[in-house]
Amino acid sequence: MTRIALHARLALAGLARSPARTALRIAVVTAAVALLAGMLLFIGHSLRTASASAVRQVPLDWQGPVSSYKQARAVATGVSRQAGIAEAAATATAPFAASTHAGPAGRTSTSQGSVLAVPPGYGRGIHTFRLLHGSLKPGDVVLDQQMAATLQARVGDRVTLEPRPGSPPKRYTVSGVGLITVPDQVFQPLNPLLGPAPAQPPENAVLMPISTFARTLAPELAPITAANAASNAQPGAQKGVQWEVQAQLDAGPLVAGSPSAALKLADQTRNRVESSLPGRVQFVDNLSDSLTTASEDSLYAQALYIMLAVPGALVALGVAYLAALGTSERDRRDLALLRARGARRRDLVALAAAESVGLGVAAGLLGAALGFVAVQLLVNGGAHLTTGRALVTVAVSVLLGVLGSGAARIAATESVLRRTVAEGRRSAVRDRPAAWRRYYLDLLALALSGLIYWLTIRTGFSAVVNPDANPTLSLSIYMFFGPALLWIGATLLLVRVRGRAVAWLAGRAAARNPGSLGSFLLASAGRRGPAINRGLLVVGLLLAFGVSLAIFAATYDQQARADAQLTLGADVTVAAPPGAIAKHDLAGKVAAVRGVAATTPLDHSYAYVGPDLQDTYGIDPATFPHATSLRDSYFLGGTASQMMSRLQQTRDGIMVSLETINDYSLKPGDLLRLRVLDQRTGHFRVVPFHVVGTVQEFPSAPRDSFMVTNLSYLESATHAPGPNEVFARSTGDPGAVATGVAAATRGFGTRVENLDDQTAKTVTSITTVDLSGISHIEEAFAVALAAAAIAMFVLTAVAERKHELATMAAVGAPLREVAAFVWSEAGLVLGAGVLLAAGLGWLLATMLVAMLTHVFDPPPDHLAIPWRYLAALGGASLAAMLGSCALAARRLRALPLGAILRER
Amino acid sequence: MSTVLAGSTALAACRSVSVTYGRGEARVDALRDVDLEIAADGFLALLGRSGSGKTTLLHILGGLLVPTAGTVSWRGEPLSTLDAAARGEARARGIAYVFQGSNLIPHLTAWENVAYAARVASRIRGEGPRPNALLTLVGLRDKGGSLPAELSGGESQRVAVARALAQQPELLLCDEPTGHLDTDTGGRVLDMIEALREELGFALVIATHDADVAARAERAPELAGGRIREETGPR
């Protein structure tokens, strides 16, 4: 038999000899591995989802300007033959000066608009428009829905298009009505050097076959070429025909990996295609633009996942390590015995390694499976494993399992190797203080953590996404040190304390009533400080991990919704044509909808501050705070309620941005003259306002400068026919309430939006990173591991103390009294662990949130406390403690007293 | 062969007791068909080599172990058919042990070890001697605050004796009480146990492989291969 085979056999025999101990070690390493495997799967899934989302958001990947129809067709043919291209089409866009329709209601016309000309079959891979009625037929046109409504034209009607002012109109039959879904991209000026520049969509748009376009309209207009491209480059300034090749990439390979990988692939494909058609085409790359944003977000997401998950994984591995330490005394004796029988140093190491491999493989396989199940159950959309990904996950999990179990076992082996056989057989082992103890690195870490936190909140270290072409996440390194050093410092301090505080407290309490059961329990617990501290270390840190994660995730979720609400304005918003809200009492109609708690009308208009045109919001300060959420952090110089009160008390009061305050050297009480549009005369007029405060953020307001004033005063100045928006707060699901609101206001030309849709739509912001998946996984594991840790503490205590407990039973102590020595310590550990978790968890969450304050928009006013989860975490730990104590009591009843007491 | 101590009032008794450990090839018959009675004030030494079944028989007598076959009684009541809790209560009613390795509770001081046993006994048997008095009795009044790890082997064994006395025993079962001690210390511990027995009047059973120790007893049946082979004494 070879040496390796011999070691493997001995290791397996050793594992099989103590099945319960082996199962416990496998279970703990499995939990740690499962957390890491779940995180890996989630990150992979999250990145692929981000890629898919970024790719899906771009219905038109590339637009390559060319100078003629002929060239467009030739290049499109060349591009479509390339690998990785789903579709390439020769298309064109062009302006028209006017359109008319003579129908039963009379003659109607529109002002200028734009034409999109596409070839037959366009739409199989490129989705820039959607047909609502009819079809696109040669010689005919499809009208955009809005233009069809303006012209009151239907399928079969005849319309005319005037290519240029004064040129003879061209007559077409309407063969369909459709909707151009991405007009800002389709009609954007094309300059490959500048990249995408989404344009103001045209009010009127027409689709026509490119052959029809080339025959009828194109001859009337000059083509845009390299020579005159600059004069057509301003949005809305297109004067000629823009011939172009539109192309869509094959999405499959793009969504198989991360956004960065997709971006790299897309860029490589574009370079290859362009170089294969040298000098003939260069593309405006809409896809890369979207993927670049997604790459930045995903880098941020990865950093965040790692920051949140790594402490949990390390604590979980710490549980595995301590589980092995729980049996290390026995391991030491076993190994010392082997050494005494002639085994050499390398044999002992090989045996420990073989055992670690055995444990690690089992734990790795189980952990990978458990991680997969967790992701499948807890992450929206599941893990989507392919064979390759599954194999990689299993391989990484097994490696982690082997490393985890190996780290635990090596500690025991190393101890044996450092000692003589006789020393190894002793239970009590004295260790030389480690360097960190001698140099007080624990206290130093805590002090540094505090300093970094102080600097973070004082100077605002923050995460910054670098907007360069190569997406990188520029993060202040100090930021990460804060919570990391807090973890390290707190852990080492607990190790240093080694239960001295427990011993001191227990000793004092025990001395109060000597001879009572309580005094014996306290005296015993006080002298088992290191063992209790070991349990406290594991249980307390796991609970702290759960608490910090849950508070952070809840705050993050709260801010994500706040971000969406800030963008949208309220739970439900209703925009209406001028005058409709006042004329039809839409605010009252919305308020009457079931699920609407409060409403407020507002007027969104514009006004000039000097030469700057700024968004201006006329609100009713009395009702506004009831219909939406205002945070104190939106304002400078007062709380939200104070600012609303000031505005309410000052009829011509106005709140302006800090930029305006600085640019115009304003202070509260100053007169501010604005030029506002008088809707009665159609001219701007100067109106006096008085500054009452500074506003940084406001519901539905843009991120740059804007102003907030009283609705009544603004309306008196602009002579507007009433507010043009209504904000509503819902008592339940905003989506359902929005449906009711839409039904109640149908027929008045309203546009109803809701918070749920907005949360899903908000991109390039904090809400892009959906933390719910990873936090669900980690929260679930925190609950499971905390419960397992307290149960492990109880069962290990029984195993370690069985001689002592058997002695108590031998002197006639009732079993329930003997059991009290176990459960009282478990209760002490859980109680102290909860206190530690409350303090440390809160500190960690505060630090994490402070770090991300500059990412959150708006920044959080307070931490969100997820009481339900915290109760579940505490409840699960308590249930595990009670359950394991009940199990321990059963074990005590069945203790083989004779066998145990004759062991020594 | 079995031995019955006839003509005395039986405090504890074994009838046809057998104890088997393991199964199949690993089966060990630790005791085979043993009969034994212990008088209320008797002093019995169980003599035998290592593995002869002495410790097993002591554990059977105190209810720490349940026989594979046969019955055990304590003060005329069956002991071996009781559950673990009831057997524990029976021990609290007057059975005390002094183990070979003292088996003190490692996280309680000497005083606390004695006091804990006293507390357990007092719940059933009323107040007994004070822990301090017992420690004084065994000559360790000044060691009450020491943890077992801080005591020498002899001191630990004396604390174990004090703890056993705190249980107000009617039957004291000593398993090689001097096994880990040198001859002088072991002799002093035995002298002390004998003196206490004389003073307090409990029945004493000492398991030993030492013929000199056995010679101190009123009777000394010898165990071999799990059977009682012959009896020595009375002195």
Shape of chain A: elongated
- The structural class of chain B is alpha/beta
> Could you report the average pLDDT of chain A, rounded to the nearest whole number?
82
Main sheet overview of chain A: 12 strands, mixed
How much of the residues of chain B is beta strand, in percent?
25-35%
Strand order of the largest sheet of chain B: 6-7-8-3-9-10
Cα shape of chain B: globular
What kind of sheet is the major sheet of chain B? 6 strands, mixed
Radius of gyration of chain A: 35 Å
CATH class descriptor of the domain at 1-81 and 172-178 and 203-235 in chain B: Alpha Beta
- Percent of residues in helices of chain A: 55-70%
Beta strand % of chain A: 15-25%
Which residue ranges of chain B are poorly predicted, with pLDDT under 50 across at least 5 consecutive positions? 1-8
Instruction: Give the CATH H-level superfamily of the domain at 1-81 and 172-178 and 203-235 in chain B.
Output: P-loop containing nucleotide triphosphate hydrolases
Based on the coordinates given, report the CATH architecture of the domain at 1-81 and 172-178 and 203-235 in chain B.
3-Layer(aba) Sandwich
